[in-house]
Amino acid sequence: MILGQNMENSIYKLSRQDIIHLKGYQSARMIGDQGHVWLNANESPYEFIFNIKNLKYNRYPEFQPKKLIEKYSIYSNTSIENILVSRGSDEAIELLIRVFCRYKKDYIIICPPTYAMYSKISEIYGIHNIFIPMFKNCSLNVKKIKLFSLNSKLIYICRPNNPTGHIIDVLDIIDILEYTSRTTIVVIDEAYIEFCINDNLIYLLKQYHNLVILRTLSKAFGLAGIRCGFAVANVKIIKLLKKVITPYPLPVPSIYIANKALNKKGILRMQSQVKLLNNNKSWLIKEINKISFVEYVYPSSTNYILVQFKSSDYVFRKLLDQGIVLRDQSHIKGLLNCIRISIGSYEECVYLINALRSISSC
Ligand SMILES: *Cc1c(COP(=O)(O)O)cnc(C)c1O
Fold first, then answer.
1. In which residue ranges of the chain is CATH 3.90.1150.10 found?
2. Ligand 1: lining residues by beta carbon, under 6 Å
3. Of the residues 25, 159, 192, 216, which should be mutated to test ligand 1's pocket, given the most ligand atoms within 8 Å of the CB?
4. Residue 120, Ramachandran bin (φ over 0: left; ψ between -120 and 50: alpha; else beta)
5. Predicted confidence band at 302 (pLDDT cuts at 50, 70, 90)?
6. What predicted TM-score, i.e. pTM, was given to this entire model?
7. What is the DSSP string of 346-361?
8. Among the listed ranges 5-14, 44-53, 122-131, 207-216, which one has the minimum average pLDDT value?
9. 239: pLDDT strictly greater than 70
10. CATH architecture of the region 23-42+266-360
11. How far does the centroid of ligand 1 lie from the alpha carbon of residue 328, in Å?
């Protein structure tokens, strides 16, 4: 008993003090454990079974799977030297910090409300976060970003943004890229870009060598379970990222499935599902605007919508009672009473609207 306690004390002494006090990332998966309609993690509602029989597992996978990179370069209209495959784009967010940021010394810029992983990962690495909130109309505070960029290594911008769903003005991005071309890496997280593919910024890579674009198969491709992401950037940046990534980031079955998903057929399937989801979204927005306790629906270029209710707490709890799991965002500054709702199948959208109607008459 006493021995155990001593051990525990010395473990806390050994550990970095900031890690002891770190609040870990609360993923959607950790939060909701009841329910049967999952609209909280922006996953695809469409399942597809990949047959992975006859794969062999006694050998390590390729460090950077060649075929997969070739396919992604064709899909994304880039060259193979510009691509890194990572264990989800979350890993790429981390690799950038490993390459560019020094413990307790360097700064990164984050523009909230946005994806929480940027600040969570930088905290783990002991990097200072400079938060430069978006304006009320969801545009970037470009002036302030430029000012602070001179002392920052990285700027993380999520486009389209999670959780608001909106597309940040491309002219603001170009303005920032231009200004920071010699001082700062600008990371554009395009996790949801397939839902508004014409807004993608791949074409800027040739001109701006400080630009990194993050992509994933987790959202539109419906493959959150295989953990496959990409960093697309100038070859110098890709070479540095390869120095700090683990030697075998993707398991054999993940590589196999990612290859299938990026075949012609897989891409067509993804594109038709994007159309379906965008149609479901239009219908959902139209219907949700008729609900009396809805205050505001944010414009969305993604597979989710952010909705401000009169009381988010009430809606969240009441829908959970009916088995519908949403993502409460009301704790985030500027998002009081907001809930993020992933676009599900048409049946799930109907189920959601019926549930909202049923609680509006209580
Ligand atoms: C879901 C999400 C990711 C993470 O994607 P993975 O490839 O599954 O790690 C990255 N960025 C944003 C903004 C996301 O919403």
1. 23-42+266-360
2. 42, 88-90, 115, 158, 162, 189, 191, 216, 218, 224, 229
3. 216
4. alpha
5. very high
6. 0.96
7. HHHHHHHHHHHHHHHT
8. 5-14
9. yes
10. Alpha-Beta Complex (3.90)
11. 18
CATH ID of 66-262, from 3.40.640.10, 3.40.50.620, 3.20.20.80, 3.40.190.10: 3.40.640.10
pLDDT in tens, 253-269: 999 999 999 999 999 99
Residue nearest to atom 2 of ligand 1 (CA): 191
Give residue 85 CA to ligand 1 midpoint distance, Å: 14
Out of 72, 89, 114, 120, give the residue to mutate to test ligand 1, the one with the largest number of ligand atoms within 8 Å of its CB: 89
184-221 pLDDT, tens per residue?
A: 999 999 999 999 999 999 999 999 999 999 999 999 99
Q: How far apart are CA 81 and CA 232, in angstroms?
A: 9
E strands in 234-299: 294-297
Centre of ligand 1 from the C-alpha of residue 288, in Å: 26
Whether residue 5 has pLDDT greater than 90: no
| Burial grade of 264 (CB within 10 A; 0-12, 13-18, 19 or more) | exposed
Question: Residue 241 pLDDT more than 80?
Answer: yes
Domain span(s) for CATH 3.40.640.10 in the chain? 66-262
The total of other beta-carbon atoms located within 10 Å of residue 125's CB is 15
Q: Return the DSSP state at 200.
A: -
